[in-house]
Design brief:
two-stranded antiparallel ribbon; single chain; 5 helices; globular; mainly alpha
């Protein structure tokens, strides 16, 4: 769980460095606070949003999940001063897309490192 939290903080760091409309302040602590708050918002509100938008997500072949994640990012922005997102449509949508890609890459790298360590005697 702590590793997933750190990977999410790293995804926020990469996303905020790539996307000019998204800013995380407070250094490493800011990234950790934002990722923790985003995880809580994602677990509580994200579950309900995904349930209510399931038909639309199925019709769009999963693409609407980026909109749901963008809404969760905007909610996280409203709850903390560490995260600033300029606009919903472009910045939040692109942030959701970039964070999904970065998180996937980081999890694949972590799985590869874990497998290689388990294989060595």
């Amino acid at each position: 769980m702590l590793i997933s939290w750190a990977l999410l903080a790293a995804a926020f760091a990469v996303t905020s460095s790539l996307l000019s409309g998204m800013d995380v302040t407070g250094g490493v602590g800011g990234y950790l606070v934002v990722s923790l708050l985003f995880g809580v918002v994602n677990a509580v509100i994200g579950t309900l949003l995904r349930l209510f938008t399931l038909p639309l997500t199925v019709v769009t072949l999963g693409l609407f999940s980026f909109v749901v994640n963008a809404v969760l990012l905007v909610i996280t922005d409203a709850l903390t001063d560490y995260l600033t997102i300029d606009s919903f449509f472009w910045t939040a949508i692109w942030a959701a897309i970039i964070m999904a890609i970065v998180s996937m890459v980081l999890h694949v790298i972590l799985a590869g490192v874990t497998r290689s360590r388990a294989a060595t005697p």
